[in-house]
């Protein structure tokens, strides 16, 4: 969360600093998106989403009394 606040503050300051500030902002954004913290956050989010979809598919299967309601693509 601190990273996002830092980015927002950097954005505001960067827009006031002109071209040099914009280049610094781009470098900061690149560092943020390639950080392990952000990668872990995204991995956790995708894992949670996968669990929610799996649970929803199971509930739909139970309610309809049919086979899997959603086919697995991958």
The helix/strand series, from N terminus to C terminus, equals: HHH
Largest sheet: none
Please give the share of residues in helix.
over 70%
Number of helices: 3
Distance between the termini: 32 Å
Would you kindly provide a brief summary of this structure?
This protein has 74 residues and is mainly alpha-helical.
Plain-language structure description:
With 74 residues, the protein is mainly α. It is 81% helix and 0% strand. The protein has three helices and no strands. The chain is rod-shaped. The protein starts with a helix and ends in a 10-residue tail after the last helix.
Quick tags:
single chain; 74 residues; 3 helices
List the helices and strands and how they pair.
Elements: H1 2-16, H2 18-33, H3 36-64
Helix pairs in contact: 1-2
């Amino acid at each position: 969360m601190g990273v996002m606040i830092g980015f927002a503050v950097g954005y505001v300051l960067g827009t006031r600093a002109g071209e040099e500030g914009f280049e610094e902002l781009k470098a900061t954004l690149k560092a943020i998106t390639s950080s392990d913290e952000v990668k872990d956050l995204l991995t956790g989010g995708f894992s949670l989403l996968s669990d929610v979809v799996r649970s929803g598919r199971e509930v739909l299967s139970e309610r309809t009394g049919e086979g899997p309601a959603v086919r697995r693509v991958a």
